[in-house]
Amino acid sequence: MVKGYNYIVNSFFDYLENRSKAVDSLLCVGLDPHIQHLDKPSAAAARDFCLEIVDSCAKYACAFKPNSAFFEVFGAEGISALREVISSIPEDIPVILDAKRGDISSTALAYSNAVFQHLGADAVTYSPYLGSDSVAPFVRRPEKGVFILCKTSNPGSNDVQILESNREQIYLHVARQSLVWSKHNNIGLVVGATDPYALTRVRDIAPNSWILCPGVGVQGASLKDALISGLRKDGMGVLITVSRAISGESDRAAVAAELCDAINRERESRKQNHTVHVTNNIAVDLIETGCVQFGDFTLKSGQQSPFYIDMRRLASFPDVLNRVSKEIVKKVLDLRFNCIAAIPYAGLPIGTAVSLLLNKPLIYPRRETKEYGTKSSIEGVYKSGETAIVLDDLISTGGSKFETINSLQKVGLNINDIVVLIDRQQGGRKLLDSQGYRLHAVYTISELIDEWLAFELIDNNQFILIKNYLSESA
Fold this sequence. Notes:
Blueprint: H1 12-23, E1 27-31, H2 43-57, E2 63-66, H3 69-72, H4 75-88, E3 96-101, H5 105-118, E4 123-126, H6 132-139, E5 145-151, H7 158-161, E6 164-165, E7 168-169, H8 170-178, E8 187-191, H9 196-205, E9 211-213, H10 223-230, E10 238-242, H11 244-247, H12 252-275, H13 282-288, E11 292-298, E12 304-309, H14 318-332, E13 339-342, H15 347-358, E14 362-365, E15 378-379, E16 387-395, H16 401-410, E17 414-423, H17 428-434, E18 438-444, H18 445-454, H19 460-473
Parallel strand pairs: 1-2, 1-10, 3-4, 4-5, 5-8, 8-9, 9-10, 13-14, 13-16, 16-17, 17-18
Antiparallel strand pairs: 6-7, 11-12, 14-15
């Protein structure tokens, strides 16, 4: 029987999940009594420091994670203090000892007995470098858990963990091996929030495993990215570990409460996105019509992109074109203009549909000036001095929009606003702003990829790849 429950649970992770559901928390509060944070350098001060954190944060903690090193530094007294801290933690809260053990045979067994029997921890962090037989003594009891170091949060982790063996990076091999190293459900993984791409890949390999996720807080990792990359489909499976960002504050309970709220807001957001009905959703439409495709594409600029947008296909799907046009109409209702200037080619079908909905004249610039007839550069009926909005399918850097703006201004039209369906977030808005023009976009590409992920039209791997691309090309 696991401590804290008057009924039998099957494994350590049953115990952990029971606690998580009971307090609606995925927060693991780290207990790291750094000497410089103590009133004096002593085991007693380390103990008291941690006891205060436990008392403040117990109601918000899914688990506590004391770091053995900060107690061991005080010798035998430190070990006694660590034992006192662990025993003080309420019985319904799991204790994960951050000791990063790793040895073989009888030595591993001795470490196991020390962690679980003498100190009373429920789980321990563990180095997998010595292989399955070194882990075996720690996982022989289903009610005790092991979090295997997989992709750690420190900058030097790439020195070893991303090296390849048999065409697979070592940390991915570790994740795969963790699935077969115990017959009980009592092995989890340590993956740093500082590398959401790695977290995504580990989650793909181990879709049901619990992941201990350090790096949020002082190390600066994004809580949102960690949850997007690491959460299971049931909204669980990730323990967000925070130590110094809590212990360094005067009102630790308030910080812990806010972290819990932030975690749960993101969980709820993902839950709602997963349950939204997909009918008539433009983000879904763009995928299903092939207007957005994923892969490795060379853009006109020569840049490589993990996605490609081809809105010229939209004209072949009148129902989708109609929905897109209605969304654009919502964006322009408060704008003052006399006509719509649609940019060929992808902008023309959209502009025509918007023109019909608004009963506003449509004009468009020619790609090349006619050498015959009226030799007009702008097709359609307009008057000098009128105001036109420029309408297109998307904007990237924004440079090409000025060709249209200049053509329209040459014939006496006033231009204040540019309207697009998608902003690729590659500097276009900033460039237009710098020249005094306003950009109105129905979607940013970031908003779209959030929806595609929520509807499972892309996986976490693609999501992180696109986010990294956008960050690099911004």
